[in-house]
Amino acid sequence: MKARNFNYVRPAGLAEILSLLERHGEGAVPLAGGQSLLATLNMRLSSPELLVDLGGAEDLKYISLERDEIVIGALTTHAEVLSSPIVQKGLPLVAEAVRHVAHVAIRNRGTIGGSLAYADPAAELPACAVALGATIVVGSSRGNRTVAAESFFKGMFATALKPGELILSVRFPAQQRERRWAFSELSRRRGDFAIAGMAAVADTKKATITDARVVYFGCVERPTLARRVAEGMCGKTLPLADSAWIGEAVQADITPLDSPGWRGSTKLQLATVLTRRALHTMQESSLGIDWA
Ligand SMILES: Cc1cc2nc3c(=O)[nH]c(=O)nc-3n(C[C@H](O)[C@H](O)[C@H](O)COP(=O)(O)OP(=O)(O)OC[C@H]3O[C@@H](n4cnc5c(N)ncnc54)[C@H](O)[C@@H]3O)c2cc1C
User: Fold this and answer.
1) What CATH architecture does domain 180-284 belong to?
2) What pLDDT does 288 receive?
3) What is the pLDDT of residues 141-159, one digit of tens each?
4) Which residues have C-beta atoms less than 6 Å from ligand 1?
5) For the chain, which residues make up each domain, given as ranges?
6) Buried b / exposed e along 121-148 (16+ C-beta atoms within 10 A)
7) Could you tell me the pTM of the whole model?
8) pLDDT band at 287 (very low <50, low <70, confident <90, very high)
9) Are 51 and 8 a contacting pair, CB within 8 Å?
10) Is the CATH code 3.30.465.10 the one for domain 61-173?
Protein backbone atom coordinates (compact mmCIF):
# COMPACT_ATOMS: atom_id res chain seq x y z
CA MET A 1 0.00 0.00 0.00
CA LYS A 2 1.03 3.61 -0.46
CA ALA A 3 0.33 6.62 1.72
CA ARG A 4 -2.54 8.97 0.89
CA ASN A 5 -1.44 12.35 -0.55
CA PHE A 6 -0.07 14.81 1.98
CA ASN A 7 1.81 18.08 2.00
CA TYR A 8 5.32 18.24 3.45
CA VAL A 9 7.15 21.15 5.01
CA ARG A 10 10.52 21.45 6.76
CA PRO A 11 10.49 24.67 8.79
CA ALA A 12 13.82 26.28 9.72
CA GLY A 13 13.27 26.32 13.49
CA LEU A 14 11.11 25.50 16.50
CA ALA A 15 8.99 28.69 16.50
CA GLU A 16 7.82 28.07 12.93
CA ILE A 17 7.17 24.35 13.68
CA LEU A 18 4.98 25.23 16.67
CA SER A 19 3.09 27.90 14.74
CA LEU A 20 2.33 25.44 11.89
CA LEU A 21 1.19 22.76 14.34
CA GLU A 22 -1.08 25.30 16.04
CA ARG A 23 -2.54 26.54 12.74
CA HIS A 24 -3.27 23.08 11.31
CA GLY A 25 -4.39 21.37 14.55
CA GLU A 26 -5.14 17.67 14.11
CA GLY A 27 -4.45 17.92 10.33
CA ALA A 28 -0.69 18.32 10.95
CA VAL A 29 1.64 15.61 12.21
CA PRO A 30 5.27 16.06 13.32
CA LEU A 31 7.85 13.92 11.53
CA ALA A 32 10.97 13.04 13.55
CA GLY A 33 12.99 9.96 12.49
CA GLY A 34 10.05 8.58 10.48
CA GLN A 35 10.78 5.01 11.66
CA SER A 36 7.24 4.46 12.94
CA LEU A 37 5.32 7.25 11.24
CA LEU A 38 6.17 6.32 7.64
CA ALA A 39 4.95 2.76 8.18
CA THR A 40 1.63 4.01 9.61
CA LEU A 41 1.22 6.37 6.62
CA ASN A 42 1.93 3.60 4.13
CA MET A 43 -0.53 1.30 5.89
CA ARG A 44 -3.04 4.21 5.90
CA LEU A 45 -3.43 3.97 9.66
CA SER A 46 -2.84 7.71 9.65
CA SER A 47 -3.59 10.22 6.89
CA PRO A 48 -2.54 13.74 7.87
CA GLU A 49 -2.88 16.72 5.52
CA LEU A 50 0.53 18.05 6.45
CA LEU A 51 3.78 16.46 7.62
CA VAL A 52 5.88 18.92 9.60
CA ASP A 53 9.50 17.74 9.47
CA LEU A 54 11.24 18.54 12.78
CA GLY A 55 14.71 18.17 11.22
CA GLY A 56 15.32 21.94 11.15
CA ALA A 57 14.99 22.24 14.95
CA GLU A 58 18.66 21.53 15.66
CA ASP A 59 18.23 22.88 19.20
CA LEU A 60 16.14 19.79 20.09
CA LYS A 61 19.20 17.54 19.63
CA TYR A 62 21.29 17.43 22.81
CA ILE A 63 22.12 15.52 25.99
CA SER A 64 23.07 17.62 28.99
CA LEU A 65 23.61 17.28 32.71
CA GLU A 66 21.71 19.97 34.64
CA ARG A 67 22.39 19.68 38.36
CA ASP A 68 21.06 16.21 39.24
CA GLU A 69 19.03 15.74 36.05
CA ILE A 70 20.01 14.46 32.64
CA VAL A 71 18.06 16.25 29.94
CA ILE A 72 17.69 14.73 26.49
CA GLY A 73 16.32 16.80 23.59
CA ALA A 74 13.44 15.21 21.67
CA LEU A 75 15.36 14.91 18.39
CA THR A 76 18.28 13.02 19.92
CA THR A 77 18.55 9.68 18.13
CA HIS A 78 18.67 6.30 19.86
CA ALA A 79 22.24 5.91 18.54
CA GLU A 80 23.27 9.22 20.15
CA VAL A 81 21.71 8.16 23.46
CA LEU A 82 23.55 4.83 23.24
CA SER A 83 26.95 6.38 22.62
CA SER A 84 26.63 9.21 25.16
CA PRO A 85 29.12 9.05 28.07
CA ILE A 86 26.65 11.11 30.16
CA VAL A 87 23.96 8.46 29.64
CA GLN A 88 26.33 5.55 30.24
CA LYS A 89 27.46 7.06 33.52
CA GLY A 90 24.30 8.74 34.77
CA LEU A 91 21.48 6.67 33.22
CA PRO A 92 22.75 3.07 33.09
CA LEU A 93 19.17 1.73 32.90
CA VAL A 94 18.51 3.78 29.73
CA ALA A 95 21.92 2.83 28.29
CA GLU A 96 21.04 -0.85 28.67
CA ALA A 97 17.45 -0.47 27.43
CA VAL A 98 18.35 1.40 24.25
CA ARG A 99 20.56 -1.51 23.16
CA HIS A 100 17.32 -3.48 22.79
CA VAL A 101 15.65 -0.88 20.53
CA ALA A 102 15.44 -2.33 17.02
CA HIS A 103 18.62 -2.45 14.90
CA VAL A 104 21.45 -0.06 14.05
CA ALA A 105 19.76 1.48 10.98
CA ILE A 106 16.61 2.28 12.97
CA ARG A 107 18.58 3.55 15.96
CA ASN A 108 20.46 5.91 13.64
CA ARG A 109 17.23 7.70 12.65
CA GLY A 110 14.66 7.00 15.40
CA THR A 111 14.47 9.61 18.15
CA ILE A 112 13.68 9.58 21.85
CA GLY A 113 10.88 12.13 21.33
CA GLY A 114 9.35 9.96 18.59
CA SER A 115 9.51 6.88 20.78
CA LEU A 116 7.78 8.62 23.70
CA ALA A 117 5.14 10.26 21.48
CA TYR A 118 4.38 7.06 19.58
CA ALA A 119 3.83 5.22 22.91
CA ASP A 120 4.15 1.71 21.56
CA PRO A 121 3.29 -0.54 24.53
CA ALA A 122 6.34 -2.71 23.72
CA ALA A 123 8.83 0.18 23.51
CA GLU A 124 11.71 0.28 25.96
CA LEU A 125 12.21 4.03 26.50
CA PRO A 126 8.69 4.89 27.74
CA ALA A 127 9.09 2.13 30.36
CA CYS A 128 12.45 3.56 31.48
CA ALA A 129 10.94 7.07 31.67
CA VAL A 130 8.21 5.80 34.03
CA ALA A 131 10.61 3.64 36.10
CA LEU A 132 13.00 6.55 36.61
CA GLY A 133 10.25 9.07 37.38
CA ALA A 134 11.20 11.23 34.38
CA THR A 135 9.41 14.41 33.34
CA ILE A 136 8.39 15.10 29.76
CA VAL A 137 8.62 18.72 28.61
CA VAL A 138 5.92 19.54 26.08
CA GLY A 139 5.74 22.78 24.08
CA SER A 140 3.22 24.58 21.87
CA SER A 141 2.87 28.12 20.58
CA ARG A 142 0.99 28.84 23.84
CA GLY A 143 3.99 27.92 26.01
CA ASN A 144 5.56 24.90 27.70
CA ARG A 145 4.26 22.46 30.30
CA THR A 146 5.74 19.43 32.03
CA VAL A 147 4.06 16.05 32.45
CA ALA A 148 5.29 13.27 34.75
CA ALA A 149 6.03 10.20 32.61
CA GLU A 150 3.73 8.23 34.89
CA SER A 151 0.77 10.36 33.71
CA PHE A 152 1.94 10.82 30.11
CA PHE A 153 1.15 7.34 28.75
CA LYS A 154 -2.61 6.95 28.61
CA GLY A 155 -2.97 3.65 26.78
CA MET A 156 -1.88 1.78 23.67
CA PHE A 157 -0.37 4.44 21.35
CA ALA A 158 -2.13 7.13 23.42
CA THR A 159 -0.48 9.97 25.34
CA ALA A 160 -1.33 13.21 27.14
CA LEU A 161 -0.18 15.22 24.07
CA LYS A 162 -2.82 17.64 22.74
CA PRO A 163 -3.11 18.80 19.10
CA GLY A 164 -0.47 21.42 18.38
CA GLU A 165 1.88 20.12 21.09
CA LEU A 166 5.39 18.77 20.61
CA ILE A 167 7.68 16.89 22.98
CA LEU A 168 10.69 19.17 23.49
CA SER A 169 12.77 17.11 25.91
CA VAL A 170 12.74 14.51 28.64
CA ARG A 171 14.31 15.12 32.05
CA PHE A 172 15.62 12.05 33.88
CA PRO A 173 16.82 12.12 37.50
CA ALA A 174 20.49 11.09 37.29
CA GLN A 175 21.55 7.83 38.91
CA GLN A 176 22.38 8.47 42.57
CA ARG A 177 24.75 6.60 44.81
CA GLU A 178 23.07 3.55 46.39
CA ARG A 179 20.58 3.23 43.48
CA ARG A 180 20.57 -0.09 41.67
CA TRP A 181 18.79 -0.91 38.44
CA ALA A 182 17.62 -3.86 36.36
CA PHE A 183 16.39 -4.18 32.78
CA SER A 184 15.20 -7.37 31.17
CA GLU A 185 13.08 -8.26 28.16
CA LEU A 186 12.02 -11.24 26.10
CA SER A 187 11.53 -10.92 22.35
CA ARG A 188 11.46 -13.46 19.54
CA ARG A 189 14.75 -12.16 18.10
CA ARG A 190 17.22 -9.55 19.32
CA GLY A 191 15.90 -6.12 18.22
CA ASP A 192 12.26 -7.19 17.91
CA PHE A 193 9.66 -5.48 20.04
CA ALA A 194 9.38 -7.06 23.51
CA ILE A 195 6.74 -9.69 24.27
CA ALA A 196 7.34 -8.94 27.93
CA GLY A 197 9.80 -6.58 29.55
CA MET A 198 10.68 -4.99 32.85
CA ALA A 199 12.62 -1.91 33.96
CA ALA A 200 13.31 -1.33 37.63
CA VAL A 201 15.30 0.83 40.02
CA ALA A 202 15.84 0.31 43.73
CA ASP A 203 17.36 2.57 46.35
CA THR A 204 19.43 0.66 48.88
CA LYS A 205 21.03 1.25 52.25
CA LYS A 206 23.95 -1.12 52.61
CA ALA A 207 22.33 -4.00 50.65
CA THR A 208 18.77 -3.48 51.91
CA ILE A 209 16.17 -2.10 49.51
CA THR A 210 14.52 1.03 50.90
CA ASP A 211 12.47 2.11 47.87
CA ALA A 212 11.75 0.64 44.43
CA ARG A 213 9.99 1.40 41.14
CA VAL A 214 9.20 -1.47 38.80
CA VAL A 215 7.60 -1.07 35.37
CA TYR A 216 6.31 -3.71 32.95
CA PHE A 217 6.02 -3.19 29.21
CA GLY A 218 5.23 -5.30 26.16
CA CYS A 219 2.81 -7.54 28.01
CA VAL A 220 0.56 -4.63 29.06
CA GLU A 221 -1.20 -1.78 27.21
CA ARG A 222 1.13 0.93 28.47
CA PRO A 223 4.17 1.10 30.76
CA THR A 224 2.66 0.00 34.06
CA LEU A 225 4.03 0.63 37.55
CA ALA A 226 4.01 -2.56 39.60
CA ARG A 227 3.26 -1.40 43.13
CA ARG A 228 2.93 -4.84 44.76
CA VAL A 229 6.25 -6.04 43.37
CA ALA A 230 7.90 -2.80 44.53
CA GLU A 231 6.37 -3.17 48.00
CA GLY A 232 7.56 -6.79 48.11
CA MET A 233 11.12 -5.67 47.39
CA CYS A 234 11.26 -3.03 50.11
CA GLY A 235 13.02 -4.22 53.27
CA LYS A 236 14.63 -7.18 51.47
CA THR A 237 18.38 -7.59 51.25
CA LEU A 238 20.30 -8.21 48.03
CA PRO A 239 20.89 -10.82 46.78
CA LEU A 240 17.28 -11.87 47.39
CA ALA A 241 17.15 -15.01 49.50
CA ASP A 242 13.58 -15.85 48.59
CA SER A 243 11.67 -15.20 45.36
CA ALA A 244 8.56 -17.29 46.04
CA TRP A 245 6.47 -14.13 46.62
CA ILE A 246 7.18 -12.71 43.16
CA GLY A 247 4.58 -14.67 41.13
CA GLU A 248 1.67 -13.57 43.31
CA ALA A 249 2.85 -9.94 43.34
CA VAL A 250 3.22 -9.80 39.54
CA GLN A 251 -0.26 -11.28 39.16
CA ALA A 252 -1.68 -8.60 41.47
CA ASP A 253 0.00 -5.84 39.42
CA ILE A 254 -0.67 -6.77 35.80
CA THR A 255 -3.30 -8.61 33.75
CA PRO A 256 -1.82 -9.27 30.30
CA LEU A 257 -4.43 -9.75 27.58
CA ASP A 258 -4.40 -12.47 24.93
CA SER A 259 -2.89 -11.34 21.62
CA PRO A 260 -2.26 -13.18 18.33
CA GLY A 261 0.06 -16.09 19.14
CA TRP A 262 0.25 -15.34 22.87
CA ARG A 263 -2.08 -16.12 25.73
CA GLY A 264 -2.29 -13.57 28.53
CA SER A 265 -1.37 -16.32 31.02
CA THR A 266 1.85 -17.07 29.10
CA LYS A 267 2.83 -13.39 29.15
CA LEU A 268 2.17 -13.31 32.90
CA GLN A 269 4.46 -16.30 33.35
CA LEU A 270 7.15 -14.61 31.21
CA ALA A 271 6.85 -11.42 33.25
CA THR A 272 7.30 -13.44 36.45
CA VAL A 273 10.42 -15.17 35.10
CA LEU A 274 11.85 -11.82 33.96
CA THR A 275 11.21 -10.28 37.36
CA ARG A 276 12.97 -13.09 39.15
CA ARG A 277 15.98 -12.83 36.81
CA ALA A 278 16.11 -9.04 36.94
CA LEU A 279 15.94 -8.86 40.73
CA HIS A 280 18.74 -11.39 41.03
CA THR A 281 20.96 -9.38 38.65
CA MET A 282 20.21 -6.14 40.49
CA GLN A 283 22.88 -7.13 42.98
CA GLU A 284 25.55 -6.78 40.27
CA SER A 285 24.22 -3.57 38.69
CA SER A 286 26.57 -0.60 38.92
CA LEU A 287 25.87 1.76 41.76
CA GLY A 288 25.32 5.43 41.11
CA ILE A 289 27.78 8.21 41.61
CA ASP A 290 27.73 11.35 43.69
CA TRP A 291 26.76 14.29 41.48
CA ALA A 292 27.36 16.87 44.18
C1 LIG B 1 11.62 -2.71 12.17
C2 LIG B 1 11.44 -1.80 13.35
C3 LIG B 1 11.71 -2.31 14.61
C4 LIG B 1 11.56 -1.48 15.72
N5 LIG B 1 11.83 -2.00 16.96
C6 LIG B 1 11.69 -1.23 18.04
C7 LIG B 1 11.97 -1.73 19.34
O8 LIG B 1 12.37 -2.88 19.54
N9 LIG B 1 11.77 -0.89 20.39
C10 LIG B 1 11.34 0.40 20.23
O11 LIG B 1 11.20 1.12 21.21
N12 LIG B 1 11.11 0.91 19.02
C13 LIG B 1 11.26 0.14 17.92
N14 LIG B 1 11.00 0.67 16.69
C15 LIG B 1 10.52 2.07 16.59
C16 LIG B 1 11.67 3.05 16.67
O17 LIG B 1 12.19 3.08 17.97
C18 LIG B 1 11.22 4.48 16.33
O19 LIG B 1 12.38 5.20 16.34
C20 LIG B 1 10.27 5.18 17.29
O21 LIG B 1 9.12 4.47 17.58
C22 LIG B 1 9.75 6.48 16.69
O23 LIG B 1 10.76 7.39 16.58
P24 LIG B 1 10.89 8.30 15.31
O25 LIG B 1 11.81 9.40 15.67
O26 LIG B 1 11.24 7.48 14.14
O27 LIG B 1 9.41 8.94 15.18
P28 LIG B 1 8.47 9.10 13.93
O29 LIG B 1 8.26 7.80 13.25
O30 LIG B 1 8.91 10.25 13.09
O31 LIG B 1 7.14 9.54 14.69
C32 LIG B 1 6.39 8.62 15.47
C33 LIG B 1 5.17 9.35 16.03
O34 LIG B 1 5.58 10.29 17.01
C35 LIG B 1 5.19 11.61 16.63
N36 LIG B 1 6.32 12.46 17.03
C37 LIG B 1 7.62 12.31 16.68
N38 LIG B 1 8.39 13.19 17.34
C39 LIG B 1 7.56 13.92 18.12
C40 LIG B 1 7.75 14.98 19.05
N41 LIG B 1 8.96 15.48 19.34
N42 LIG B 1 6.66 15.49 19.67
C43 LIG B 1 5.42 14.98 19.42
N44 LIG B 1 5.17 13.99 18.55
C45 LIG B 1 6.23 13.47 17.92
C46 LIG B 1 4.94 11.56 15.14
O47 LIG B 1 4.02 12.54 14.74
C48 LIG B 1 4.38 10.15 15.00
O49 LIG B 1 3.03 10.12 15.36
C50 LIG B 1 11.15 -0.12 15.57
C51 LIG B 1 10.90 0.39 14.28
C52 LIG B 1 11.05 -0.43 13.18
C53 LIG B 1 10.80 0.15 11.82
Assistant:
1) 2-Layer Sandwich (3.30)
2) 58
3) 999 999 999 999 999 999 9
4) 29-37, 74, 101-102, 106, 110-111, 113-115, 117-118, 120, 123-125, 161, 166-167, 191, 193
5) 7-53, 61-173, 180-284
6) bbbbbbbbbbbbebbbbbbbeeeeeebe
7) 0.95
8) low
9) yes
10) yes
